[in-house]
Write a structure and sequence with these properties.
homodimer; 455 residues; alpha+beta; Aminopeptidase; 2 domains; six-stranded mixed β-sheet; 15 helices; 18 strands
Amino acid sequence: MKPKEFLDSHKKERLDQLFEFLRFPSVSAKSEHKGDIVKCAEWLSGHLNKIGISSKIMPTGGHPVVYGEKLSSTDYITVLYYGHYDVQPPEPLNLWKSTPFEPIIEDGYILARGSTDDKGQLWTHVKAFEAYTATNSKLPINIKILFEGEEESGSENLERFVKEYKDMLKADIVVVSDSAQFSKTQPAVTFGLRGLSFVEVKVTGPDRDLHSGSFGGSIGNPINALAKIIAGLHDENGHITIDGFYDDVVEVSNFEKSEFKKLPHKDEEYLKKTGSKALHGEKGYSTLERIWSRPTLDVNGITGGYQGEGAKTIIPSWATCKITMRLVPNQNPNDICNKIGKFIMKICAPYVHCEVKKHGGAPAVIVPTDGPWLDAAGRAIEKGFGKAPVFMKEGGSIPVVGTFKHVLGADTLLLGWGQSDDNAHSPNERFHLDDFEHGTYAALELIEELSKVKA
Amino acid sequence: MKPKEFLDSHKKERLDQLFEFLRFPSVSAKSEHKGDIVKCAEWLSGHLNKIGISSKIMPTGGHPVVYGEKLSSTDYITVLYYGHYDVQPPEPLNLWKSTPFEPIIEDGYILARGSTDDKGQLWTHVKAFEAYTATNSKLPINIKILFEGEEESGSENLERFVKEYKDMLKADIVVVSDSAQFSKTQPAVTFGLRGLSFVEVKVTGPDRDLHSGSFGGSIGNPINALAKIIAGLHDENGHITIDGFYDDVVEVSNFEKSEFKKLPHKDEEYLKKTGSKALHGEKGYSTLERIWSRPTLDVNGITGGYQGEGAKTIIPSWATCKITMRLVPNQNPNDICNKIGKFIMKICAPYVHCEVKKHGGAPAVIVPTDGPWLDAAGRAIEKGFGKAPVFMKEGGSIPVVGTFKHVLGADTLLLGWGQSDDNAHSPNERFHLDDFEHGTYAALELIEELSKVKA
């Protein structure tokens, strides 16, 4: 039997096993699920061993990593597969049509927490491996597997782990299926991710809330002062005003411009998806350029003073906000944190105290579009999905991709089989059966296609 | 026995009775205290009847009013005494040195919720009346009493009540002791209060929180948009930029300028009291002018997006803030609400929805400084406190004072016996025994002095 025939003849088993995998409530953010996480890791590692991939559970300080490998020849290229077996919390439960950890099929979708993010997607690769091992077919690549258990709670221990096991994890290329296609009818290869920098700003005025009648007009109000800071971070064209913010920004390339124009993107449809009144962004760039190839700055939350019902006539003692910036090559997250910190101290009103907590972040990553890896992935996807993929980017960040580049020197192929409306972090998370099937076949083809690349 | 001798010989009784009054937890803001409010009103009304003032409890739709009167002659002037028997909530309880509704004496202070605001202060007048009635002395003025039960929860029913009982409440002058002296060693007559306008602003972007990676840069962020609005409400000199905001403002008079300069105010001491880094206000005005005679605008609270620990990388769906403006003569609260509403809609970014809820407010009030009433009050205070009062204003608002002027045509004498550090709305509310005593003697003298004014 050939690997492809094995997949064809084991459709039901593949799905049943995924359902078993999905039943573990492996919620990494909640300590009450610590035991479930371990059970899930043991099950996953056991399954890898069962299908002939040598696997073990490795501690990280937090939730464990499931590692696996099947190394066939030093002549072969080595592929590191990254995925995560932990999931987002399922809450709010009342908005689910089903039970989050009891998967069902509805309207052609697998409905369960983790179905698309990321158990369902990583499962396509596991089943592709099995198609080789179960049929005693020769695996033409060396396989290494890193399945993480804390992606949904910040991957706190992963960078340290990758550094510590640098030699064990060494690979020519990394494969990650933890994102989305361009649309339901258009598969894609993601060749770039934005980075992230995060800061928190606290502005302090009086040492306690003061009566706004007795004191109003004589001392500075920290909310007004914070608002002035925030307003000072963009100019009227949507450019960010922080000194040196764009110093290291690589301009949108001609390749990107032309690829993005080819995509079936429509501003009106996109606007509808956001539920906003109008689009708004940096002058001189298209929507896709704005979300994929240009850096941004958003206030994610703001707090200060009285927030209950009715009026409370105070000058509040303090106000805070959280700011994240999405970065593009070659911006450095710490450098950007320092620059915004310095700029805020510069523009902050002199009559309040201001403190900027710098949390750093992750750099943007890009996979060379002219190399052999993307071509190989493209061919595999075309075979698996029956349609050639488009090249797209993603505005979000997957920090570990930067770590792989930085520590292992390996690029990452971002091959998302999901859809942007799969409710990855929301109630009713789902993964279409077609995407599961096509993704599995593409994962199989990928093994063959990657083996042809000269490392 | 003369009235003054009665006060001298009943010092202990006066204090014991006040303690009884303070023991009622008459918290108007909490429905669980509704019964306590009624009991307190019954006790107070009963006491007035007992000392010879005809009193009744009158419903208002909310908490009742305690009304009382002793009308001696149509030839006499009629004085309406306003006070409130309800109190602020005592929370947070853990910050109290004592039990809020079990008054004690500590370091010369009466320590209890309501001691200065306003039970202790209104009690000085009640005891002054009693000094006359108990000694069968001839009361040389007609007395009307309006003790409110919802001052601390917004006096929602008072304006309607005053309008409904306009004839019953008709008076030549109103007396209110519900504020503070200039300092511990300097009694004062307050001849003006600022008014108030209150609005709430809501800015809406996407119809739900969006991922700031996937969407950041392409749609407007409501927090950033709200910050821009707030920042646009002041110019670099601390002036308010709202179109027409200063149209009706009466400039600081020469009388005010010279009176304020005489006061023992020191900016450094004042700054220390606020716990702020530096003073800040409208260019071209002194601190006392800024807080007493100039209009202001403060954001009292702001909310939007994620406010928990750590980062949540979202573009929030909405952001709101509460804004109060302190007004001076002759600004109209509704007019000012309309002006800020119009201005905010004008400067709000076009890519978000914006809504301004206008709550109106109260106009500023001023007592003519060249009339006979202030002179009479000044003489009474000098006799009661042993020192001539200064003329000051108050930056806060007492909306009912505007109602008295507007509906009854009567000016109000604001004769505060408390201190600004009496913790009126904070834990450990207190009222100094000296202020209680001096205030009671001043209240007694006031009866005599007011009777001399030709109405």
